[in-house]
């Protein structure tokens, strides 16, 4: 799978413009959403004067509000930035307590803290947003190279970038969330795997384990590729891979030891999920089954838009099912492609096993990189299929922006 493809300046500029334009579109959606929909807290009133009918607005549109960095500091972003500024909550897990921030893995807030120390004229909010956008751009560059290494043409590789940028929850790539950093580390791991630089791939995967819970999948995928490439041709010098495997666990184990010291529980980040964050390991797709049994638009707590979560879950799973049908011969005859599919399944199934509800499922699915490859492959001879997904992504992207800027919980 190794390739000699090298990124050129023209492509780097195209991707940069794509990132800038897509972020400007998101900001425009924030502006429109912030200044239109909050006005209608009651049924709009119309007054008829002669032959004219006018809408009674609560205030003049000349008084519109310009979204600020502080408007992006909400939901989980507050937790990450609080950790960057003040560290983790310091009390025992066995004490009665409210939601603790131990569930938020440390690499992103650590990075924010370090960069803010270097550029102290920037606020933590500004550093978080800037870093996320830089990580996004770097991730897309690596993904472009990786896609070319996998044999995609220039147009298809750029299409893959576009699909990521217009994904419904793409706004989270540009605020103080872990999405961009995880995408960068996953992309770097995939890139180094494609170059057979497995040591660097393991390093990137190891860092992703302290970014998001599913980060270990990146490490597992690299070792699957090692097994495929080595087959039975193992030599004494290959003991280094065993050592690398042990070393790859150090960042996560180090975090757990710190949690043990801080909370009294080695696995506090995992146990706290079920104690106060309504997350627990369940049979895969239990949350989907629960929604089908008792459907809803927005849950009573407001944290889940069941309709959109189910719609996007179906859209992603449908791509996998169609890919299995149309590319089954490719999967059966190519161990590397089969490994890539297993990698995709793990990244997809784990979010569907993390609770009885669909909260955040759309955001979790956004970083399942193989999904975009499979969508493009399916759409190669089915352009209407691609059009459907682009339309769906675009509409929901705007919807999520409107909801986010107006503090609707379900966007998380």
Automatic annotation (TrEMBL):
One of its GO terms (cellular component) is mannosyltransferase complex. Keywords: Endoplasmic reticulum, Glycosyltransferase, GPI-anchor biosynthesis, Membrane, Transferase, Transmembrane, Transmembrane helix. The keyword Endoplasmic reticulum applies. This is Glycosyltransferase RgtA/B/C/D-like domain-containing protein. The chain crosses the membrane at residues 12-32, 127-146, 158-178, 198-227, 239-258, 307-326, 338-355, 361-379, 386-405. One of its GO terms (molecular function) is GPI mannosyltransferase activity. Pathway: Glycolipid biosynthesis; glycosylphosphatidylinositol-anchor biosynthesis. It is a multi-pass membrane protein. Its main location: endoplasmic reticulum. It is found in: Endoplasmic reticulum membrane. One of its GO terms (biological process) is GPI anchor biosynthetic process. InterPro entries: PIG-V/Gpi18. Pfam families: Mannosyl_trans2. It comes from Paenibacillus mucilaginosus (strain KNP414).
């Amino acid at each position: 799978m190794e390739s000699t493809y090298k990124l050129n300046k023209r492509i780097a500029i195209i991707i940069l413009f794509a990132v800038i334009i897509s972020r400007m579109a998101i900001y425009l959606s924030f502006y429109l959403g912030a200044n239109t929909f909050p006005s209608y807290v009651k049924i709009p009133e119309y007054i008829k004067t002669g032959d004219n009918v006018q809408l009674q607005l609560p205030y003049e549109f000349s008084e519109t509000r310009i979204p600020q960095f502080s408007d992006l500091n909400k939901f989980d972003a507050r937790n990450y930035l609080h950790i960057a500024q003040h560290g983790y909550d310091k009390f025992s897990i066995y004490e009665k307590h409210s939601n603790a921030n131990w569930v938020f893995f440390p690499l992103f807030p650590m990075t924010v803290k370090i960069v803010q120390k270097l550029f102290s004229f920037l606020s933590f909010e500004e550093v978080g947003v800037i870093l996320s956008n830089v990580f996004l751009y770097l991730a897309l560059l690596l993904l472009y190279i990786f896609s070319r290494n996998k044999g995609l043409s220039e147009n298809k590789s750029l299409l893959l970038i576009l699909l990521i940028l217009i994904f419904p929850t793409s706004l989270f790539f540009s605020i103080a969330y872990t999405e961009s950093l995880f995408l960068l580390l996953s992309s770097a791991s995939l890139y180094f795997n494609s170059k057979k630089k497995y040591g660097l791939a393991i390093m990137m995967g190891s860092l992703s384990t302290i970014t998001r819970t599913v980060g270990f999948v990146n490490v597992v995928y690299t070792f699957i590729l090692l097994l495929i490439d080595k087959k039975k041709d193992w030599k004494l010098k290959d003991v280094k891979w065993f050592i690398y495997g042990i070393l790859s666990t150090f960042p996560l184990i180090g975090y757990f030891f710190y949690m043990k010291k801080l909370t009294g529980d080695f696995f506090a980040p995992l146990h706290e999920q079920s104690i106060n964050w309504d997350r627990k390991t369940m049979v895969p797709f239990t949350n989907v089954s629960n929604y089908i049994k008792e459907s809803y638009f927005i849950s009573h707590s407001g944290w889940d838009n069941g309709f959109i979560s189910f719609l996007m879950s179906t859209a992603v799973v449908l791509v996998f099912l169609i890919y299995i049908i149309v590319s089954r011969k490719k999967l059966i005859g190519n161990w590397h492609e089969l490994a890539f599919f297993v990698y995709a399944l793990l990244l997809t199934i784990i979010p569907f096993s993390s609770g009885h509800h669909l909260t955040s499922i759309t955001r979790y699915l956004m970083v399942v990189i193989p999904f975009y490859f499979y969508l493009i492959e399916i759409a190669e001879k089915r352009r209407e299929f691609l059009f459907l997904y682009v339309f769906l992504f675009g509409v929901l992207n705007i919807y999520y922006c409107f909801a986010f800027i107006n503090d609707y919980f379900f966007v998380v």
